[in-house]
Design brief:
Class_I_gatase-like; Rossmann fold; Prot/Nucl_acid_deglycase; glutamine amidotransferase; DJ-1/PfpI; alpha/beta
């Protein structure tokens, strides 16, 4: 018997257009999808996958490179691919209602800064989730998706909340800061988030009421653990 359902929202973007017009290939980051999925399933929850249009995003190849993503990356890639394959066609985000779910999880990869940050359907879903006190989790570039949630006057619903996300420093170290249309941590701060930064590439998680955020891939498992503890 499932304890409840968790909605994992993926980006549908496979390209991040740079300020010089070049196209940077992107996709889901294996650990950020696999670690929360694994934790929630182990804890007795059912995980559904959704994306804009139900499009299955490719794997970000960097997340399969041990030099970039660590020695555990092959396990994360295998888990993510198996989970997606077993789930089958992704749900269309625009057709999903929040009532069926106890929590929403927003993993990264650069995709959320391409599409999810301005996805009106996701914005409505997150607004309803927040209003209903449901748990919302976002890791690495996933917090970009929170930017989609606005009130009738266009004000950001998560302004003033404590959170963390992939930092400008981490973006520089990764080699993707130059040419980025905008940098996530800076944008969150500009729009009123209380963005709390940890050390680059070290696990760093923030909990603010029903909002759970992790700074980078290393923060993915802890994100899910914190959410599971709160659901208990």
């Amino acid at each position: 018997m499932s304890k409840g359902k968790v909605l994992l929202v993926m980006s549908a973007a496979d390209v991040w257009e740079r300020t010089d017009g070049s196209k940077y290939p992107t996709g889901y980051w294996a650990e950020e999808l696999a670690a929360p999925h694994e934790k929630f399933v182990e804890a007795g929850y059912t995980v559904d996958f959704a994306s804009p249009g139900g499009v299955l995003q490719p794997l970000d190849e960097h997340s399969a490179d041990p030099a970039v993503a660590g020695e555990e990356c092959a396990r994360h890639v295998a888990h993510a691919q198996k989970a997606l394959e077993e789930f089958g066609p992704l749900l269309k985000l625009e057709e999903v209602g929040i009532d069926d779910y106890v929590a929403v999880v927003l993993p990264g990869g650069h995709g959320p800064v391409v599409d999810l940050f301005q996805d009106a359907g996701l914005g409505r879903l997150l607004a309803e989730a927040d209003k209903g006190g449901k748990l919302i989790g976002a890791v690495c570039h996933g917090p970009a998706a929170l930017l989609s949630a606005k009130d009738e006057d266009g004000n950001w619903l998560f302004a003033g909340r404590r959170m963390t996300a992939f930092t400008d420093e981490e973006e520089r170290l990764f080699g993707t800061a130059e040419g980025a249309p905008w940098l996530l941590a800076s944008r969150l701060r500009e729009l009123g988030a209380d963005h709390v930064e940890g050390a680059a590439y070290q696990q760093h998680n923030i909990v603010d009421g029903n909002l759970f955020t992790g700074q980078n891939p290393a923060s993915s498992a802890r994100l899910a653990e914190d959410m599971i503890a709160a659901l208990r």
